[in-house]
Amino acid sequence: MFDRCQWLNEPRAWRLDKGALSVVTDAATDFWRETHYGFTRDSGHFFGCDTAGDFTATLRVRAAYESLYDQAGLMVRLNAATWLKAGIERSDGEALLGSVLTLGQSDWATGPFTGDPADFRLRLTVAAGVLRLQASADGQRWPLVRLCPFPAAAAYRVGPMCCTPERAGLKVLFSDFVVGAPMSKDLHDLT
Question: What is the pLDDT of residue 38?
């Protein structure tokens, strides 16, 4: 899938090798829009591919989060004011599972991740104006992280995302990136 992706804010150091994407983040990179902090940032690294409408995307993310707001995960984006980013983010002294939904302004929801935050998977489905976000420690069990409205569109851009607002140098390895038709599993089906 990575061969179909294009950069928004290409990092200085990155490499594609055998189906995996390695990235080292640049300094002062982030995605955020107004809420609480009062500023807008659209400088994070995003390697996205276009979809033909509704989709399900999965991604494996490996990184060692060290500094405040170090983050890596998956993003779906319509434009600079309409997107969701999700993944592990360092906050309050630990690596938390979080998501930021931006519909004009950003929200932020975080919680503990019971697996190894240095190696996790995300699954994101957008279908019929609804976004479903799931996270997995093993690629087998997929608990729900977030269910929310998201604008219906003819196409989306989805792919790996990483940022380091407070520093440079987070090393991230993205792999197992797949985008396909939206899954139709029951909401409480964790497979």
Answer: 78
SS3 38: coil
Closest to 21 measured CA to CA, from 8, 3, 39: 3
Residue 25 belongs to a domain: yes
**Domain, as residue range, for 10:** 2-180
- In-domain check, residue 188: no
Tens digit of each residue's pLDDT (9 = 90 or more) over 153-170: 999 999 999 999 999 999
Q: How far apart are CA 21 and CA 23, in angstroms?
A: 7
CA dist., res. 99 & res. 181, Å (int)? 22
- For residue 107, what is the domain's CATH number? 2.60.120.200
pTM confidence score: 0.96
So what's the pLDDT on residue 165?
97
Residue type, 15: R
* Gap between the Cα atoms of 65 and 167, Å rounded: 11
Sheet order of strands, 157-163 included: 6-8, 45-50, 157-163, 71-79, 82-91, 94-103, 109-111
For residue 30, being part of any structural domain is answered with yes
**3 state DSSP class of 131:** strand
If you ran DSSP here, which 8-state letter would residue 106 be given? B
182 has pLDDT over 90: yes
